[in-house]
Amino acid sequence: MKRIYRRLTAAVSAAVIAGGVLGALPVTAADQDLVILHSEAEALPVTTGGQVATKVYNDEYPGYSGDGFVWAAASGGVKLELDLEKGAMYEVKTRCLSYLGDRLQDIAVDGEKAAEINIAKTDTWTDVSFGFFYIPAGKHTIEIGSSGSWGYILYDTVTFGYADMPEMKISPVPCDPKATAETKALMKFLTDNYGKRVITGQQEIYGSGHDGNYEYEFDYLKETTGKLPVVRGFDFMNYNPLYGWDDNTTERVIEWCKERNGIATASWHLNVPIDFADYTLGDAVDWQQCTYKNYQASNSTFNTANILKEDSKERQYFDAAVKMLAEQLGRVQDAGVPIIFRPLHEAQGNYGRYGDGTAWFWWGDRGPEVYKELWKLLYTELTGTYNLHNLIWEINLYETDTSDEWYPGGEWVDMIAYDKYEGSPTRWGTDPATSVFLKLVGYSGDTKMVALAECDRIPDIQKITNEGAWWSYICPWYDEYITGESNNPKDLLKAFYNSEQVLTLDEVPADLYSADVPQQTTVPAETTAEPAKTTAVPETTVQSSTTAGTVTLRGDVTCDTKVDVSDAVLLARLLVEDREAVVTEQGKLNADMNGNGSPDPDDITLILKKIAKMI
User: Fold this and answer.
1) Cα 413 from Cα 296, distance rounded (Å)
2) Could you tell me the maximum CA-CA distance found in the chain, to the nearest angstrom?
3) Is it true that domain 34-162 has CATH number 2.60.120.260?
4) What tens digit of pLDDT does each residue of 195-217 get?
5) Span 181-507: which CATH code?
6) Is the peptide bond before 338 cis (omega within 30 degrees of 0)?
7) How far apart are CA 217 and CA 482, in angstroms?
């Protein structure tokens, strides 16, 4: 409720300022309800190496608050002594100035490092967050600063409080406006569970591995845990114009969903000829002369950027490959089966992360701008040219500072995926990689689900619950990645598969693909740092889309035959569940400014814009 209230008050305040509306509104600072402690740094205990000061040698740094600041020289900082009422995700913020250069600073909880961040050099006092981390209830000591000789930073204030966690309330409307009924039903099932339970998953082996026993991993899970996963990972890589063969992936997708009531996800490891310059379109090529690696590693002459040129040889090859893929996806669609489709995956690769700075697959080896256009081209070809509307589009992204450059936009994407492996680049253990999860949530402004589409070690479900890292589904890779004790000890698997917070195949409703899903024709605008644009509904008498009744005056929440600030205030109180806020059913109908069927925070903004004659 706290987060909802902050969203409402922020929306009201922003709209009042933008529209020039006058009048007192009962709002508070957007983040005030999260703060547990806010202090001048010099009022806190100073750790060894730090000192309270008003200048550094003879240099002054004006703009600090209070009586001074804490100067962390070669080491040192400040600490907090706290007695927390409950275990939760918390955030530490500081107002600081890194005067000498970029500096690594730590935060330690009870003597153990919880986070390390780089604070960039700046000439002004800057607000910096150490990120979100879980701390159990009870007494704790939190130390902020340098643990070694890497200090030389000034601390002005310190703020400690609850982390502003995402709501994870995602629209069930697919990005494809022509999505099939089964696809809409699956999307609704996924969004209904998102943020509440983790859905189990497992990748099957490629080709004819395990001597053709595609049930190897699934039999192992059944024997170990007594249960089976919901999501099964497939790959359409063997349907290609080069060496391809039919490994019956399509039949297994249909069987898993139709006969066993599971969910299918699929990637597409499309190969290209290494010697593409001398390749004749339509020729067969031995798999050893093909690659899905980048041109830097494979020395391939295939130029990914040329796919975007309609008359290029690369485009003709890509079109032929897409046609073969579409044939299989069409068979799946005809069977009434939707797929969580994860093509062109892990595109960023090493780009922006490791020393070589390249992608590891050819589809990402010409950088993010080419990749985004390639993604859009594939989407357009499959949905437009081949009339395929049984796909939930899932894109792989990473957590680097440049990862958001690879995101094509919400109108092209339904889900965001992450592939987590030990040492790439972090050794997570059973940690749920919450920092990564939250970063990926932020790329879409908390409007898209986030899944762990590949992993070796499964995160501990209690840590997922504690930290709010509610990956939509978790899908380990095949063979030793799931069966090896070093990756997933049997006790870990048993605990995960038998947790009430985890969904297994036996718990999937029988009507998964025939659920009654509201029919919608438009995709909601994606929320980013700014409020999503919403189109105002013309001022006429209209029927509510989901509630019986007639709107008499749109925006008139109080039903006093006029629209003013009191309507926005009453709606804000209603949405934060203020028990003294009485809104009639007619008022709720009038409040639905954006016409989506129920009052929400966007309606407040529209009411205020209407008052200010901005709409």
Assistant:
1) 29
2) 78
3) yes
4) 999 999 999 998 778 888 999 99
5) 3.20.20.80
6) no
7) 7
Helix (H, G, I), strand (E, B) or coil at 105: strand
* 104, 161 contact by CB (below 8 A): no
C-alpha atoms less than 13 angstroms from C-alpha of 495 in its C-beta half-sphere? 13
Mark 3-28 as b/e (b = at least 16 C-beta within 10 Å). ebbbbbbbbbbbbbeebebeeeeebe
d(C-alpha 566, C-alpha 573), whole Å: 11
Which strands, in side-by-side order, build the sheet including 138-146? 76-84, 138-146, 103-109, 112-119
Q: Dig out the tokens for 218 from the structure.
A: 């699934």
Question: In the predicted model, what is the mean pLDDT of residues 601-613?
Answer: 74
Cα–Cα distance for residue pair 469/460, rounded to 1 Å: 11
| pLDDT tens for each residue of 432-460 | 999 999 999 999 999 999 999 999 999 99
Residue 362 DSSP one-character state: G
User: What predicted TM-score, i.e. pTM, was given to this entire model?
Assistant: 0.77
DSSP three-state, residue 206: coil
Q: What amino acid occupies position 472?
A: S
Beta strand spans in 110-261 (E): 112-119, 126-135, 138-146, 153-162, 198-203, 231-235
Domain coordinates in residue numbering, the chain: 15-29+534-611, 34-162, 181-507
Tokens representing 568 are 């926005």
The tokens 């003597």 sit on which residue?
A: 111
The three-state secondary structure class of 17 is helix
Contact between residue 90 and residue 129 where contact means Cβ atoms under 8 Å apart: no
**Strand pairing class (339-341; 263-267):** parallel
**Distances in whole angstroms, Cα of residue 577 to Cα of each of 1, 13, 422:** 8, 19, 44
